[in-house]
Amino acid sequence: MIPTNATIIRKAYDDFAKGDIPAVLEAFDAAVTWHVPGYSPLSGDYKGHDEVVGFFKHTMELCGGIFALEVHHVLAEEDIVVALVTVKAERNGCSAAFPEVHVWRLSNGKVSEFREFQGDEQTENRFWS
After folding, report:
1. Burial 82-104 (b: 16+ CB within 10 A, else e)
2. In 3-state terms, what secondary structure has residue 119?
3. 48 conformational bin, left if phi > 0, alpha if psi -120 to 50, beta if neither
4. How many separate helices (H) and strands (E) can be counted in the chain?
5. What's this model's pTM, rounded to 2 decimal places?
6. What is the DSSP string of 76-101?
7. How far apart are the first and last CA of the chain?
8. Sheet of 80-91: strands edge to edge?
9. What is the Cα 7 distance to its own chain's centre?
10. Exposed, middle or buried, 122 (CB in 10 Å: 0-12/13-18/19+)?
């Protein structure tokens, strides 16, 4: 059975939660583009598996590995999947929870583009800076 785009993204979130980054990368096209808005040390555009893994590692370094994604809804239509999530992290003794919208574009069953939309970009910038 061919997995739906929503199933592919749900599995990627599950694999990320388990720390199985190689399994996460299986869902991504080799030329995936990853976009994080804002002006924090994590903001920017990342291209390809190596840069995305670098982004994951940098995120974990900044929060000492105390990081989780709570996935509330995954909505899919054709080649677009939208996930409503809460990002939870701890940094410098401060815990935070940020609502975000994640938009995934898939082509031929692989993620070609990820875009993060933050509920409160200024607060996230301060937290990660």
Report:
1. bbebebebeeeeeeeebebebeb
2. coil
3. left
4. 4, 6
5. 0.95
6. EETTEEEEEEEEEEEETTEEEEEEEE
7. 44
8. 44-47, 28-36, 110-118, 94-107, 80-91, 67-77
9. 16
10. exposed
For residue 127, give both structure tokens. Answer: 């937290």
State both tokens at 98: 């940020």
Q: Note the pLDDT tens digit of each residue in 22-64.
A: 999 999 999 999 999 999 999 999 999 999 999 999 999 999 9
Write down the pLDDT at residue 16.
Answer: 97
Going from the N-terminus, what domains does the chain have, and what CATH number goes with each? 5-128 (3.10.450.50)
If residue 112 lies in a helix (H) or strand (E), which one and from where to where? strand 110-118
Rounded to whole angstroms, the Cα distance separating 46 from 20 reads 20
Q: How many residues in the chain?
A: 129
Q: Are 37 and 117 in contact (CB under 8 A)?
A: yes
Region 67-71 average pLDDT:
97
